[in-house]
Amino acid sequence: LGILDKVRGLIPHAAISTDIIVGFPGETEEDFQETLRVVTEAKFAIAYTFQYSKRPGTPAAELPDQLPKEVVQERYERLLEVVNQVAWDENKKQIGQRVEVLVGNSEGRKDDRTNRLTGRARDNRLVHIDWQDESNIPRPGDLVWVDVTDAKPYFLIASATNLPIIRTK
After folding, report:
1. Sequence-distant (≥ 6) Cβ neighbours of residue 113 within 8 angstroms
2. How far is CA 22 from the centre of its chain?
C-alpha cells in the first residue's frame, strides 16, 4: 500500500491493476479477509481475479491444506463483489473528465450493434465511445479526445468531443 501511495503521489491519475488468486493451499479465512481489506484500501482500477486450481506436477499441487472447491468458489464470489465495487467507484470518478483514447480494432463486443468505437485511455481503461460523425470516423491507432459520460466496473462510456482526430499512419 505504501508503494501505491508513492505512485499516486507521483502520478495522481494512475489506474493501478493487480492479479489475485483465491484459495491457494493453506489460505485461511483471516488471510482472505486481509486480501479483501487490501483490495478495498488499494482502490485498484482493474483486478484480474482467479481461483486457485490444483495443477499436477506443480509444487503447489503437493502442498497440504488444499481447500475444497466450494470454499474457493464462495471466496471468489465474495472477492468479485468487492473488486467490482472498488473498480466501479474508481471508474465513476472519471465521469465528466476529458480523456485521450487510442482507438482499438473492434475491442468492444457490441461495437457494431451500438455504433460505438472502443479504445484505451492513457491509463489503460477500456473506453466505449458513442461516435456520431459517420463522415469522420477514426481508424484503429488514431487518438481522440472524449468526455466520459458513464462508468461501469470494467469500462467507461464516453462521447466524442469536437476536437480533431489525431491520425496515425
Report:
1. none
2. 18
What does pTM read for this prediction? 0.83
d(CA 23, CA 50): 9
Contact 49, 80 (CB under 8 A): yes
- Rounded Cα–Cα distance for residues 82 and 155 (Å): 16
Whether the CB-CB separation of 83 and 114 falls below 8 Å is answered with: no
Gap between the Cα atoms of 108 and 129, Å rounded: 10
For 54, phi and psi rounded to 5 degrees? -70, 120
- Tell me the residue type at 45: A
CA distance 72 to 66: 10
Most confident of 9-13, 59-63, 70-74, 138-142: 70-74
Distance CA 150, CA 22 (A): 30
Rounded to the nearest angstrom, the gap between the alpha carbon of residue 126 and the centroid of all alpha carbons in its chain is 8
How many Å apart are CA 147 and CA 156, to the nearest integer? 10
Query: Are 112 and 134 in contact, with CB atoms under 8 Å apart?
Result: no
